[in-house]
């Protein structure tokens, strides 16, 4: 049978129209893909730009848990090393209580001014001290009194009083104490025993630092704060600090 020409022509038109429609759809899809691809590229660029540009903001907070955490760990390690170098000797530096051990005075409150009579050029007697909450297992107590504000005028932290082998059951150190069951070392006045505040310039802060130790120390009376701290290293069960100020 001979095909009907008009039928063939109609089919050709339909096929051509379908092909054209498919091409348009494909072209639109390609354009969409390009747009999507472009959008993806832009997103990638934004991500890359955001990552680079916001390193000090977003990435820092993210890095806190990842690379930044490592950096913080490194900084922490550095500061730990610094703290360790400052605190290798327990007798040195500031003390932030480890436990319940407390040291107070009936003569002045923590951070307040000490009465004049405790100064080196006055009566030069130690203020009364009260001790509480000595930890179980403590064999002895040690006391270091120093002046961190002396660094500028004297070039060093000035040691005023060091005492060790204080019985752990001690609850009161009386004013003008002359210990019979403990040992006093040498202070920076080159004297054994207590040397009161004597700031040469302005009001200074004085730190009364108490340590609970798990051992008894075998030290001579010529021992200074540096040597006492070295002997205490590794034996501190608890520590605390009481501050007092004294005017020039």
Task: Give an account of the 3D structure.
The protein is an alpha+beta fold and 248 residues long. It contains five helices and nine strands; from the N terminus they run αααββββαββββαβ. It folds into two domains: 82 residues; 155 residues, PEBP-like (Phosphatidylethanolamine-binding Protein), CATH 3.90.280. 37% of the residues lie in helices and 21% in strands. The strands form two sheets. The chain has a six-stranded mixed beta sheet, with helices on one face. Strands 1-3-6 form a three-stranded antiparallel beta sheet, with no helix packed on it. α1 crosses α2 and α2 crosses α3. The protein is globular, with a radius of gyration of 39 Å. It starts with a helix and ends with a strand. The N terminus is likely disordered.
Question: What is this structure's SSE topology?
Answer:
Elements: H1 5-53, H2 55-63, H3 67-87, E1 102-104, E2 112-113, E3 129-132, E4 140-147, H4 151-154, E5 158-166, E6 172-173, E7 183-184, E8 204-213, H5 225-232, E9 236-246
Parallel strand pairs: 2-9
Antiparallel strand pairs: 1-3, 3-6, 4-5, 4-8, 5-7, 8-9
């Amino acid at each position: 049978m001979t095909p009907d020409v008009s039928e063939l022509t109609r089919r050709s038109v339909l096929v051509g129209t379908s092909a054209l429609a498919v091409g348009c759809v494909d072209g639109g899809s390609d354009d969409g893909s390009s747009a999507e691809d472009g959008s993806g590229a832009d997103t990638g660029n934004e991500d890359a730009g955001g990552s680079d540009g916001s390193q000090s903001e977003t990435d820092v907070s993210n890095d806190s848990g990842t690379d930044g955490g490592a950096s913080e760990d490194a900084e922490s390690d550095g500061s730990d090393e610094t703290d360790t170098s400052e605190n290798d000797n327990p007798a040195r530096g500031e003390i932030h209580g480890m436990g319940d051990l407390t040291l107070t005075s009936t003569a002045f409150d923590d951070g307040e001014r000490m009465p004049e009579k405790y100064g080196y050029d006055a009566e030069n007697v130690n203020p009364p001290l009260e001790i509480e909450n000595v930890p179980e297992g403590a064999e002895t107590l040690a006391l270091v009194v120093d002046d961190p504000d002396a660094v500028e005028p004297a070039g060093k932290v000035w040691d005023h009083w060091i005492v060790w082998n204080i019985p752990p059951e001690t609850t009161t150190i009386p004013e003008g104490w002359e210990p019979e069951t403990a040992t006093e070392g040498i202070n920076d006045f080159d004297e054994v025993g207590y040397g009161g505040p004597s700031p040469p310039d302005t009001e200074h802060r004085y730190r009364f630092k108490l340590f609970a130790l798990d051992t008894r120390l075998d030290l001579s009376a010529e021992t200074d704060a540096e040597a006492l701290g070295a002997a205490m290293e590794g034996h501190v069960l608890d520590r605390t600090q009481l501050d007092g100020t004294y005017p020039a």
